[in-house]
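Propose amino acids for all 364 sites.
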């Protein structure tokens, strides 16, 4: 995103990626472009408003990989129906002209029609609302293509191993071609560190006394057969045993169910799902079904890591805000972390604005 923005402004731009494009979390999301309905409960209206606008722009700009999707929330009491209906009507209101469709309250019979495997015991009806779905990996590759078309240079399988440093300035980067084990340098007026969960690893190269800014959280998804959710709509479980939400989303003739929020001590390029995380997903989705899903029904598992902005007082990563943050090193490095796929365009614009100001680049 930052490479597209910088190249579109006419700046000579180099993007260095240590693995493949769309590696790791870029292709391991829940496949949703959304404002974040659970942020309503947290009262984070600013993030919701920003994300809903960006959701609308993303669906407009990339309709070949993004589309509206209906979500069904089954409810088992009349007051819960009222509670979710009011909350999601507010969600629609905040979206304004970027709304994807109106929230509706539906009967138990309609919920059964939309979700044939739903547990019908004491089912009081449901609430249906709209959000967006996207192909994260394809979008990332399309963005790489666009950045290249706009004049940026993109190279992958190259790892930044150090900065080119003068007395009071970072003049560029030293990187290693991991395919041929060759070392190269690239001079730059300003550097953007947009490395997600690896942001601290890069910042450590700037200062040995660097204070960590990222709290890493692991999100696991399981993939199951479409027979458990044969309709084209998605299920949204509004409250799991740990107070989060859970989605069951149709995806390429299968269903993706997730996600978890597990703090991890260290970022890794190939995070591994814990058995208790898989059990957690299965247990929570089974609470809403009249059929039981077991571990043998899991066709595959994938795991992504969230780069959440570190807060010392937070007891769990589930309560950490999903807002992004930008840090500036006056020597010539701008770091952006946090945020989410949905708001990538706004994040890119802001970080390039900061880089332009720091390096006193000419406006274009």
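Proposal:
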């Amino acid at each position: 995103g930052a490479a597209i923005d910088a190249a579109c402004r006419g700046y000579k731009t180099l993007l260095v990626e240590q693995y493949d494009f769309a590696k790791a979390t870029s292709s391991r999301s829940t496949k949703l472009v959304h404002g974040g309905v659970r942020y309503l409960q947290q009262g984070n209206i600013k993030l919701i408003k920003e994300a809903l606008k960006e959701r609308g722009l993303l669906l407009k700009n990339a309709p070949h990989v993004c589309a509206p999707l209906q979500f069904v929330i089954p409810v088992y009491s009349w007051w819960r129906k009222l509670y979710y209906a009011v909350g999601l009507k507010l969600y629609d209101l905040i979206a304004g002209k970027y709304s994807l469709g109106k929230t509706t309250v539906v009967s138990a019979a309609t919920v059964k029609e939309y979700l044939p495997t739903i547990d019908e015991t004491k089912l009081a009806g449901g609430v249906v609302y709209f959000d967006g779905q996207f192909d994260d990996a394809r979008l990332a590759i399309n963005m790489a293509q666009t950045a290249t078309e706009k004049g940026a240079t993109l190279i992958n399988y190259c790892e930044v191993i150090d900065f080119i440093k003068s007395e009071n300035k970072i003049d560029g980067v030293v990187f290693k071609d991991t395919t041929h084990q060759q070392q190269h340098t690239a001079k730059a007026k300003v550097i953007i560190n947009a490395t997600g969960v690896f942001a601290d690893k890069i910042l450590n190269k700037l200062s040995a006394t660097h204070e960590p800014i990222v709290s890493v959280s692991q999100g696991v998804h399981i993939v199951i057969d479409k027979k458990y959710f044969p309709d084209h709509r998605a299920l949204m479980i509004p409250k799991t045993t740990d107070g989060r939400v859970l989605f069951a989303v149709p995806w390429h003739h299968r269903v993706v169910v997730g996600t978890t929020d597990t703090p991890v001590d260290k970022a890794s390029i190939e995070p591994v799902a814990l058995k208790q995380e898989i059990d957690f997903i299965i247990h929570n989705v089974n609470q809403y079904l009249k059929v039981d899903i077991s571990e043998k029904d899991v066709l595959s598992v994938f795991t992504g890591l969230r780069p959440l902005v570190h807060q010392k007082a937070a007891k769990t990563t589930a309560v950490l805000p999903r807002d992004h943050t930008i840090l500036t090193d006056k020597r010539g490095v701008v770091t952006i972390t946090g945020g989410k796929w949905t708001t990538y365009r706004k994040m890119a614009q802001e970080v390039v604005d900061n880089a332009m100001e720091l390096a006193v680049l000419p406006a274009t």
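The CA atoms of residues 223 and 300 lie 5 Å apart. The first helix runs from residue 2 to 8.
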